[in-house]
Amino acid sequence: MRCSKCVLPENTPNIVFDENGVCNYCHTYQKFEYKGESALLKTLDSFRRPDSRYDCAVGLSGGRDSSYILLKLVRDYGMKVLAVNYENPFTVPQAKANIENAIRALNVDIVRFQDKNNRHKRIFRDTVNAWFQKPSPALIPIVCIGCKPAWLEIYRIAKKYDIHCIVSGGHPFEVISFKREMVGISRDENPGRAFLKYIYSLRKILQNPAYLKPSIVLTLMKSYLFGNPHSIGIRLFWPTITWIELFNYVEWNEQEIISRIKSELDWESPPQLKSTWRFDCRVKHLVDFMYMETLGMTDKDEFYAKMVREGLLTREEALHRLQDESRLYFDEIQLLLDQAGFQNTSFLNEPGSVSVA
User: Fold this and answer.
1) Alpha helices for 183-244 (secondary structure H)
2) Which residues lie across from 8 on neighbouring strands?
3) Is the distance from CB of 137 to CB of 356 less than 8 angstroms?
4) Element (H, E) at 156
5) Residue 335: count of CB within 10 angstroms of its CB
6) Which of 162, 179, 214, 249 is least surrounded by CB atoms within 10 angstroms?
7) Tens digit of pLDDT for each residue in 96-149?
8) Which of 280, 283, 276, 238 is nearest to 146 (CA)?
């Protein structure tokens, strides 16, 4: 059963349907209100510095949204942008090609930094091994913490180049409400307060001693302190650097984004993948596997449900996308695990064998 208004399935955490088959997520949903392009321009203007080499920095991954952010700032708003790229060990080749095409087309400088001493790979192995010892859908996001401390380095780079503004491409449809529900946070909570309350997830972590390895604990602390615009560490250590999420100001328009980056930046997504969302890191394929095994759904279900509520997709279009995009790419997952140095990947051969703790 799926909601008769959006597309959320009956296995969504804490979902309830009324007599008409409409879910409680729909009943409490409030459409997102953008601050407006005039407010964005006013904010960007305050960071224009004729005497400086750069006005702002953008974290560039080669994915669709970060590529569009760079394009928008340079071509539409005339900002002097420094692109910053974390060379994630799990970045796919097409994303790397997209980065090269973007900086060439827009003639921008780029600073790259790498994973030191295979730290990211080790953290990924540790968190994945911990999760499979006691699988919990609430703790799936922890497998992605390895790249969160990269924001700490981006801020250091911004300070080095005397940049006072960082622009990123997060947008409201990517805030997955059921992830909040699973750690005891209201799906309708204000983003800033919700982030602070993620400390509640410690209760779930403490139920699995495998997460208490010093490397995992340290990375979790860095992620909490520096991995989000609302992070305490960012506000404390870099009060003069402002983090702007562009899609809080202007509408996230998927069709426009893909059309422009393809035509102006020669951007592409891997042809074998049906979705362009978050393809740039292979970890997403494993995350989809974990959600499907424990919940029977992925975050795409809610992503498209929000687009339906916002009037950006019809319910029928969303259902068609989910049918088309819900397959799991075991070849990509195998490549990921090989890259990370896993010796035993037998769980990939046994779909449905994961037992939720």
Assistant:
1) 191-197, 202-205, 214-226, 232-237
2) none
3) yes
4) helix 150-160
5) 15
6) 214
7) 999 999 999 999 999 999 988 899 999 999 999 999 989 999 899 999 999 888
8) 283
